[in-house]
Amino acid sequence: MKVREPLTLEVADLAIGGKALGRDDGRVVFVDRGLPGDRITARVIKSKKSFAEAKLVSIDTPSPERIAARCVHVNQCGGCRMQELPYERQLFHKHKQVGEALRHLGGIAEAIVHPIVPAPSAWNYRNKMEFSFMPQANGPAVLGLHERGTFDKVFAVRECHLTTPLVVEILKLTQAFAAEHRWPAYHPSRHEGVARFLMVRHLEHTDACAVHLIATSRELHGLEDWARAVRAISPTVQTVTLGINTTRSNVAFMEQEHVLEGSGVITERLLGLDFEVVGNAFLQTNSAQAEQLYSAAIAAARLAGDEQVLDLYCGAGTLTLLFARVAREAIGVENVAPAIERAERNARINHLPNARFVCGDSRAVLRQWARGEREGAVKPDVVVVDPPRAGLHPRVVARVAELRPRRVVYVSCNPATMARDLKDFAALGFPLAEVTPYDMFPHTPHIECVARLERTES
Questions:
Q1: Of the residues 222, 239, 270, which one is the last residue of a structural domain?
Q2: Disulfide check for 428: which of 174, 372, 401, 457 has CB 3.0–4.6 Å away?
Q3: Alpha-carbon distance 349 to 268, whole Å?
């Protein structure tokens, strides 16, 4: 099979990450699009001895499972690439992927994988959306989402069924305002222009909405008029801010945040606790499913009430504070200083003095505690880890094992790196007891899991 040679194959399965899987001449072929049962033509873009990567050319015979897409942008957008698969079949494939990751990447042949927990709602569940500005050769800048598989192509979004109608209304107002006032859009490779991102949060449980425009400077004509117009859309819109980002990184991050309307802060309520949310704050983007995920993490810890819990990668302290309600003490570790400040404020808001927070990289903090180089060393009964998609550094796994907790609760957003880390934990005396997948993001390939690891006596 030569590189760039078109081939015809049948999609047999879906890989972790949502790519279609087929076989050609005994090799696995990963295709950027396709559903199980599709007969497709694809063009190979990378060829190796045991696998190839390909781009979809055409769907020649659709799978009998395929259904009509709800969104008009299905062929452009990389977001809900699984929306043409019935929801119950999405759940089937996601559950299957977790088991396969544990077997093939974790070496755990007989893992107890409980049935996947479906999202309470398959549509309009996202409480946060990020849209990008992109300059055009002729005409005003485009504001929308990136085309599938690109970083420098954006299409103007007309509808989105993952978020709420209010978010789409704010997007459309901003699209029209930016076009009328000729806002210069930032280009991610030429590094010129001003307007970069529009980030909108509409929280499910409190119905609070915050709108954040991210730009390289304040040099946008009519900025204050835009902010007032957005605020006037609905009383639900409680704050509008301008975030400044002068870096070359194409990420919706704010180096500075300036309040244009309102207080700059909104609040979400999860499992009876209040959490303040600002522009850069991390919050699970599906509030209803987050409550089920967090409840499962607390249940997996099997607390009696007198334990000390260590929560690594705690962010703004969501899980730490939920554990503090049912444990003697909960300690959160996070390397982002503003997140720690927000976590401490959330602890005061919720009257949880038995929660404390440590600012620092988890690997470094654990090493310093082990060597006696940092005060406040812990001897936790339970360790909770909720790492980014890259998973845990092997030294973090080793340091956690050295603490000898009774159990470890692993909250994961990537089954592949979770499986790798569980293999390392098992080698250090913490084998997997059980894992439950959660569908946090319907119609996308993403999967969340809660795993319980129990320390062996040996």
A1: 270
A2: 401
A3: 12
Phi/psi for 117 (5° steps) reads -90, 115
What amino acid positions are annotated as catalytic residues? 413
> What is the domain-level CATH number for residue 12?
2.40.50.140
- Asked if residue 288 and residue 399 are part of one domain, the reply reads yes
The pair of three-digit structure tokens given for residue 250, joined into one six-digit string: 């194409």
Please count the helices (runs of H) and the strands (runs of E) in the chain.
9, 22
Distance CA 299, CA 438 (A): 15
Residue 4 has pLDDT above 70, yes or no: no
Strand order in the sheet with 128-134: 154-156, 142-146, 128-134, 195-202, 209-215, 237-244, 256-262
At 319, the amino acid letter reads L
DSSP state for residue 450 in the 8-state scheme: E
224 and 303, same domain (yes or no): no
pLDDT, mean over the chain: 95
Report the greatest alpha carbon distance in the chain: 70
Is residue 80 domain-resident?
A: no
CATH code of residue 108: 3.40.50.150
Return the SS3 of 98. helix
Same domain? 137 vs 109: no
Q: Give the position of tokens 């899991």.
A: 449
Q: Please compute the mean of the pLDDT values over residues 84-89 and round it to a whole number.
A: 96
What string of DSSP letters covers 4-19?
A: T-EEEEE--EE-TTS-
Say if 74 falls within a structural domain.
no
d(CA 440, CA 121): 10
Closest CA to 312 of 296, 333, 330: 333
In a domain, residue 86? The reply is no
Q: Based on the number of CB atoms within 10 Å of its own CB, is 305 exposed (0-12), middle (13-18) or buried (19 or more)?
A: exposed
| Number of folded domains that form the chain | 3
pLDDT for the residue 2: 53
Lowest mean pLDDT among 42-56, 58-72, 228-242, 259-273: 42-56
Q: How far, CA to CA in Å, does 112 sit from each of 104, 115, 241, 435, 451?
A: 15, 10, 46, 6, 10
Decide: pTM greater than 0.90: yes
Band (pLDDT 50/70/90 cuts) for residue 152 is: confident
Query: Residue 401: what residue type?
Result: A
**Residue 51 near residue 30, CB atoms below 8 Å:** yes
Same domain? For 183 and 199 the reply is yes
Closest CA to 361 of 339, 382, 330: 339
Residue 3 has pLDDT above 80, yes or no: no
Phi, then psi, of 331 in degrees rounded to 5: -120, 125
**Residue 384 covered by a domain:** yes
393 and 309 fall within a common domain: yes
